[in-house]
Design goal:
- It contains twelve helices and twelve strands.
- Strands 4-3-2-1-5-6-7-12-10-11 form a ten-stranded mixed sheet, with helices on both faces. Strands 8-9 form a two-stranded antiparallel sheet.
- Helix content is 38%, strand content 17%.
- The chain has a single domain, classed as Alpha-Beta Complex (Inosine-uridine Nucleoside N-ribohydrolase, Chain A).
- α1 links the parallel β1 and β2.
- It is α/β, with parallel strands linked by helices.
- Bound molecules: alpha-D-ribofuranose and calcium ion (CA).
- The site of alpha-D-ribofuranose has 16 residues, from α1, α6 and α11.
- Calcium ion binds next to α1.
Length: 315
């Protein structure tokens, strides 16, 4: 199992992805990078440090990444994740500190041990693109790059065709998808199948250590409230946890290959995934493996099981 470098914008579902990754025995999280996205990168970095302290893993290094997209203005999602980025949760501040320069740290790790690390990117792709711009070809030195982002055959969630992570930094997404990295994409098509209801969250966290259960219930209360009041559905989507889960157990999804390009100029479509499905021998865009289907019940059980049985950091 390759050691994981998590690149995230915590964010509630990012936090759930980190908690699951640290609780799943086969996961080896070796570094966390933060990026401007759901919240500003300083708040995201503080949240990452607090989460690692909560999970008893202050030993895992945190690298603060880019403060803004390569082009344009940052998009925020405080209306979903709350002003703190972690819903209603109140985590104690951490005594840990973060290093800066996530993209340089990523390059150093990938160059020093090629084909060793997998990257799980669940925020805008600014850090990865910056690494590739400063060190061309470096992303191909990752074993695999799992990206939560985009929409293939379903509507977007921030524009009619665009998903938050890719719309937040279309140029970065284009650079990453045009690189020689081995990318596995986890789009809204499949993450929307991983919706957890409030009752399932409560039931799933029974006999979970109180401090973890209380955190997760408080953190998820904000996106769930929004889901109920603004979008009319019960629960929230586990976009980022599903991506982390598939990075260690890819066989938990059905994968299809699509030829993908990222629209970077469109007034209404910037950040959209453009798929070339024409029946002809040559297609535009790199062939990318895309997760398109899961067994929801099985994956929800796999999400809750390690968290429920977690009894402190692995020694
Ligand atoms: O569109 C969902 C993605 O955008 C998730 O990663 C969520 O955390 C936000 O970053
Ligand atoms: Ca995220």
């Amino acid at each position: 199992m390759p050691p994981l470098i998590l690149d995230m914008d915590p964010g509630v579902d990012d936090a759930l992805a980190l908690v699951w990754s640290l609780a799943w025995a086969e996961c080896d999280v070796c570094a966390v990078m933060t990026v401007s996205g759901n919240v500003d990168v300083d708040l995201g970095t503080s949240n990452a440090l607090r989460l690692l302290a909560l999970m008893g893993r202050p030993d895992i290094p945190v690298y603060r990444g880019e403060r803004r997209p390569l082009e344009g203005e940052p998009i925020r999602a405080a209306h979903i994740h709350g002003g703190t980025g972690l819903g209603e949760a109140q985590l104690p501040s951490s005594t840990g500190t973060a290093d800066s320069g996530a993209s340089a740290a990523l390059s150093d790790r990938l160059r020093s041990e090629p084909d060793r690390y997998s990257i799980v990117a669940v925020g805008p792709l600014t850090n990865l693109a910056t690494a590739e711009l400063n060190d061309p070809g470096v992303l191909a030195k990752a074993s695999e790059v799992y990206v939560m982002g985009g929409a293939i055959h379903v509507p977007g969630n921030v524009t009619p065709t665009g998903e938050f992570n890719l719309v937040s930094d279309p140029r970065a997404a284009s650079i990453v998808f045009e690189s020689n990295a081995t990318i596995r994409l986890v789009p809204l098509d499949v993450t929307r199948k991983m919706r957890v209801t409030q009752a399932e969250m409560k039931e799933g966290l029974t006999d979970c250590p109180a401090e973890i259960r209380d955190f997760l219930m408080a953190a998820t209360s904000t996106p769930m409230k929004i889901g109920r009041e603004k979008y009319g559905y019960d629960g929230m989507y586990l976009h980022d946890p599903l991506t982390a889960m598939l990075s260690v157990e890819p066989m938990w999804a059905e994968w299809e290959t699509f030829h993908i390009q990222i629209e970077t100029q469109g007034e209404f479509t910037h950040g959209q995934i453009v798929v070339d499905e024409r029946s002809q021998p040559v297609h535009q865009g790199k062939p990318i493996q895309v997760a398109m289907d899961i067994d929801r019940r099985k994956l929800l059980d796999a999400f809750f099981q390690p968290i429920r049985s977690w009894r402190g950091a692995k020694k």
